[in-house]
Structures are given as C-alpha cells and as structure tokens.
Design goal:
The chain is mostly helical. The protein contains 10 helices and 2 strands; from the N terminus they run αααββααααααα. It has a two-stranded antiparallel ribbon with strand order 1-2.
Length: 241
C-alpha cells in the first residue's frame, strides 16, 4: 500500500501518503492501519518516524490512537478539532480578531438559518425542542457546564438541519472558540437566551429566515459585547488555556 520513504522529514511524507490513501477512499472511517512494525517496513523507516507521523495525523483529527490489546491507529469518522485549533492559533498570533470571528459567525449563521428554514425536518425540530427544554432546566438548576454543552449542541443541530457538512465544518469550530471566551469570562446564560432560541426555532418552522437571522444576530452581538467588557483586547491570550 505504501512506498519507501527517503527524506530528512520522513514523518511528513508518511503522513501525506496516509492522507492520500484516505482521500482515495482506500482507507475509510473505522479502518485500522497496519501495526507500527509493519508500517515501518513498508515505508522503510524507523518506528519512531512512523510514530511521529501517526501523532501528526492524530493532531489533525484524521486518525485516533487507541491503547490495549485491541488498540492501534484507526481512521476517524471526522472531527472539527483541527479547524478549531487553527482558529485558536490564528487568534493567539493576532492574525484574526474577535471582531473578525463574530462577523464571520454572523454571516455564516445567516446562510445556516436560510437553509435550515428550507430544509429542517420534523425530526430536526424535535431535537431542537428537546435541546431547548433541557437548556431551560439547566439554567433554572444553575447547571452551568450542562448548559454550555447544550449550547454547543444547539448550534450543532442548527448546522445539521441544513444537511450540508461544509456548513457544519464552519459553524461548530467558530462556536467552540467563542465558547472558550464565554467560559473564561464566566458569562452565564439566562432564560431570555433560551427564549430567543425558541423564537429562532419558531421562525424556522414558519420558514421565516429573515426573522431568525435578526434574532440570532442580536444575540451574537450581545455575546460579543459581553466578552469585550471582560477582555477589551479581544485576545485569546487573555483567556486561560
């Protein structure tokens, strides 16, 4: 399956060959890669080089490494971790700002809501309704971490209702980075937040994308302003890692 490697940065070439096998669908989600020993023989490199390549692919979210008798390297179903980390790194380096992040998020959510208004199914609405009920309970019971998880799930459900994986790829990492700011700034959701989400969902049911967008933009702007009150520089460096 793989070709021998002869270069100084062998782990990069090994990583690229494995990526090519995944892109060509010769390796699919759930497939187990050969053991390190076998890979080192196929590539003609040391096991350390193979190990470094596998760690590189794990960081990129392409494979998962499992320990134990039935462990090994497995191709993952897909992860947004790499995109999330890239956005975090760009913020840390000052290449993008919190203003950029919020602006992009608002524009992407416009597309998400317009498509959700057209494509969301009854099953999508059922899951959104369940999320809102649980979110209200979490806020009333002051279960902050549970509420944060439900917030993540809410945006994920909206993105999934578009039936477009690319929009999911864009929506979830942006929301995750913002949540890091929200958590660090200790911004707590209130019942009014749930009520605004209920209004968004009702607008989508009525195929009123413009109404949903207006409510969502207002909410995202309020979150942005709340973060800036705590972190005026809008820098990820100010947020505890």
């Amino acid at each position: 399956m793989f070709k021998p490697v002869t270069t100084a940065r062998t782990f990069e070439v090994i990583s690229e060959q494995i990526r090519e096998q995944i892109e060509a669908r010769r390796l699919r989600p759930g497939d187990k890669l050969p053991p390190e020993r076998e890979l080192s023989l196929q590539f003609g490199v040391s096991r350390n080089a193979v190990r470094e390549a596998l760690r590189n692919l794990e960081s990129a979210g392409l494979i998962g490494l499992q320990k134990g008798a039935h462990g090994g390297a497995f191709v993952r179903e897909g992860s947004f971790d790499g995109v999330t980390q890239s956005i975090r790194d760009m913020l840390a380096l000052g290449r993008i700002s919190l203003d950029n992040l919020t602006e992009a998020r608002q524009e992407i959510m416009k597309v998400v809501l317009r498509m959700a208004a057209q494509r969301a199914t009854e099953d999508d609405f059922k899951k959104l309704d369940e999320n809102l009920v649980l979110s209200r309970q979490a806020i009333e019971n002051r279960e902050h971490e549970q509420q944060m998880k439900l917030t993540a799930a809410f945006y994920s459900l909206l993105a999934k209702s578009t039936q477009n994986m690319v929009l999911m790829l864009l929506t979830e990492p942006l929301a995750e980075v913002v949540r890091r700011f929200v958590r660090a700034a200790d911004i707590r959701a209130t019942i009014s937040v749930v009520e605004s989400r209920e209004q968004v969902v009702q607008c989508l049911r009525n195929h009123d994308a413009d109404g949903a967008i207006t409510i969502m933009n207002d909410h995202l702007s309020k979150v942005h302003e709340a973060i800036l009150r705590r972190y005026p520089e809008g820098s990820i460096m100010a947020v505890d890692q």
